[in-house]
Fold this protein.
Amino acid sequence: RKGGFDHYMLKEIFEQPQSFYETIRAGIDDNVRQMIMGADEITLVACGTSYHTTLIFKYLAESLCNISVRAEMGSEFKYFVPPLRGLVIAVTQSGETADTIAALKMAKARNCSTLAITNVQGSTVTRVADSTLLMRAGPEIGVAATKSYTAQLAALMQIVNLRCERAFDDVLSHAHLAIGDVLLYDVRDAVALCSKADHAFFVGRGAFYPVAMEGALKMKEISYVHAEGYAAGELKHGPFALLTPETPVVAICTPGPTYSVMASNIKEMKARRAPVIALGVDGDKELAEIVDIFIPIPNTHLLVQVLTASVVLQLLAYHTACVLQRDVDKPRNLAKSVTVE
Ligand code: M6R
């Protein structure tokens, strides 16, 4: 049933080109399209990995299409309900996460229009929300979310595309190819560093900050290496005290407005003797020279870099967990869906 893979998680990582492509191909129906086009403000609610996709959406939608977006954690929302207007979107691959559903019910009670983005047709969230945008990831067995995460991004990136007058049609219809290109990456050197560490940092800026948070979540949940996802500029406001030669920092540094400030952050980390594993674009020799391990991702559009960087971080967590002989598909103390608040 694992299709020749050692674990479901690896199988599911490898299914991502297809699940991403299928989710893009399924598109957005007219009803959902109208909801999205009519919304002045969008609030998203989610938990865990799904929350990270909503943060990525916020960065992309605000910077690329100038819409006002709020991303809220389901578990907090219920107790500290923000002022709500417009469209509220619950993002939950299982469709059963209690905190996310409770938040959506509260939004409904406040007369917001509600949309569910989920992988499971007929799940509880689909019965609560006014409409559903279904991801096409197929069943995900591994507790760690992988293909459901990128399928959520496929759904959310389509919303960005819609609000940007379909400026990214071409990018999105080819993104699965770039995901396929990174699946066989050799991340052994980075794995060797992480598997010896007790603590690691994952850092990025802009949309790569939640990508880093997700990389850290994957690392800690399946390898049990303590990992923190941080906005790169925040490390010097406290966490620098934790940097040692035994504390790897995984930094995502791709071309764009934050490239040079990221590069100087990396130099500051190196000056504190932390080994740096950098994800940068293919051919970035300057970056490769200042870090300990350089992992090149394809030099493509921002939307695609978000996907490929995420997949590389999934591989890093997966192989680290394998080296440490963890129960990759069923990490301790965790359940696939959290149905209590
Ligand atoms: O089913 P959901 O997307 O609502 O689940 C939310 C989280 O429990 C989930 O994303 C969790 O963080 C991941 N399985 C971690 O890999």
